[in-house]
Amino acid sequence: MTKGTIVLATKNTGKIREFRSLTKTLDVEILPLDVFDLPPIEETGSTFEENSLIKARTVAEAVGLATIADDSGLEVDALNGRPGIYSARYSGPDATDASNVAKLLAELHDVPMEHRTAAFRCVVTLFDPTAEQGPLVHQTTARAEGLIIDERRGQNGFGYDPVFFVSHLGKTFAELEGETKNRLSHRGKAVRLMITFMKHLFDAS
Length: 205
Hints:
The chain has five helices and seven strands. By secondary structure, it is α/β, with parallel strands linked by helices. It has one domain (about 5-205): Alpha-Beta Complex (Maf protein), CATH 3.90.950.10. The protein has a seven-stranded mixed sheet. Helix 1 (about 15-20) links the parallel strand 1 (about 5-10) and strand 2. The model has no long low-confidence stretch (mean pLDDT about 90).
């Protein structure tokens, strides 16, 4: 793999902002998915790993460039791991962040706080169709632990961040500054692992 252009297989502005912040130490240009005229990608996998790979491979093979994709979501213990891979569309096909949070809080209405443990989980996939020895595939994964609270707090972040409470900080993800969230978040951890892998590839090239 050589330094150059990497496609980020998402149109989510929050994810794009976080990825660019985390990858600023690499000498690469990050292109978001909306630069390309591609049809929607069907996430037919049953795990974060499968969906992340589907997105990265589909985009990489379509545009002929190394592509990074992530699949991430919220796993709530009291809901047997839901919403999981359906986190982004938990409240239906026209889901919004607000409607997803509302459904989650409704389902947890009678659950006491001590049983509202949850984790954000993220899998990041790099798929490079230009590698000399054939397509290069590498995945990293990470988690962030917290609790789901009833009150939405904070203006930063997106998705379930306003109700995802980090006990040792006394704040939700949406109350954290960007650098702090990147250090603690599931996506930040997984991307940093991917960056470490990519740096080794660049040094070896």
